[in-house]
Amino acid sequence: MTAAPGGAVAGRRWPSAAGAWLGIGAAPGALVLGAQVAERHDGVLPLVVLLAGGLLMAALLAGQGLLGLLPPHGENSTLSVASARYLPPVADRAVALSMTLAMIGWFGFNVGLGGAALGALTGLPDWAAAVALAAPLLGVIVVGGGRWNALAIVATGSAIVLIGLVALRALPAGVPVTVQPAGPRSTAVDLAGFLGYVSVFAMRAPDFTVGLRRRRDLAWCVGLLVVPALLAAVVGAGMSAATGSSDVVATLAGPQGMAAANLFLAVAVVAPTLACVHSGSLALGRLAALPAGLLPWLVAVPGLALAILRVDRLMADWLVLLAAAVPALVVPMVVEAARRRRGGRPRMISTWTWLPPSAIAVAGTLAGYPESALVGLVLSVLAAMQARRRPRPTGR
Fold first, then answer.
1. Which three-class secondary structure state does DSSP give residue 95?
2. Homologous superfamily of 14-313
3. Structural domain boundaries of the chain?
4. Exposure string (b/e) for 335-356, b if CB count within 10 Å is 16 or more?
5. What is the pLDDT confidence band of residue 244, given thresholds at 50, 70 and 90?
6. Whole-structure pTM over 0.85, yes or no?
């Protein structure tokens, strides 16, 4: 995986970008998502929620991912490059700072979780296992010059096999999916969960589509995330029914967990961790003119400190708020990019199209209404469409 303009390989195909997408799709969080949704529906997943959630995730990923494609389909841009073209300077810097901090936090979350599983498997203390997991991954990024896609694919493929073995032993008979629809509010809460799962990765999707040739390549990447995520959600629902807990990752992990389950958790965080360092380095490079070789260290070292402190056990609420805030910014970028592809004159995105919807989503989530993330997304769609029809001078 390489960075963009000035770093991306022009005209590459989807296999060269598959690792990050597949890794997010098969991450442990997808198991938890399915378990949490099923818990609200007596241990089963409504089929309509699965289908609508998949479509929602695909739309967000594809819309933002188009920015990375080669012209005329896209702009061959990473998020950091595109942000400067679409957002006023203050908003651009705020996005870069937010993404940097988010990637440091996600690094700590992933390595903390994977390190604990590795420690349970090997007998190492959690802190030592976290270092043992993070050090070679950082080495791959620094020494490999960003070429980590193959490792991510192999690691995630192994994780899929391992969780399949665990599922065969732990799942009850039958598929935990129902055709019975849920109520409107329950459906909105469920869809907000799927939205939150993919929102941060959707925002930085151009980091992983930059240089791709065709929309077909993007479609493959989106499918490699969405399909495994939906299947993992079904497995998570089944595991929740079998264990009686919606926190299936905590159930699988620890000294009492199955060896294959702990190995799955240790391997499954490899691709998301590599993707965090990749995107975090790009975002940090937007904030400060630092040597390229230093950027991964500035993401990984504080992230490792968080992992050693086991912040993965404390970060759930923060990650939920971040997931609620981000989609409202994705929408106006997607709408403006589509307008430009049709020949419209470039203009900066007004803050009012995304900040109020984002604030509403966060405030509602804090107040205990998780469906607020979906409300914020809808409001940002309406605001972006209104801004698109409203003529205004470039640079406003």
1. helix
2. Hydantoin permease (1.10.4160.10)
3. 14-313
4. bbbebeeeeeeebbbbbebbbe
5. confident
6. yes
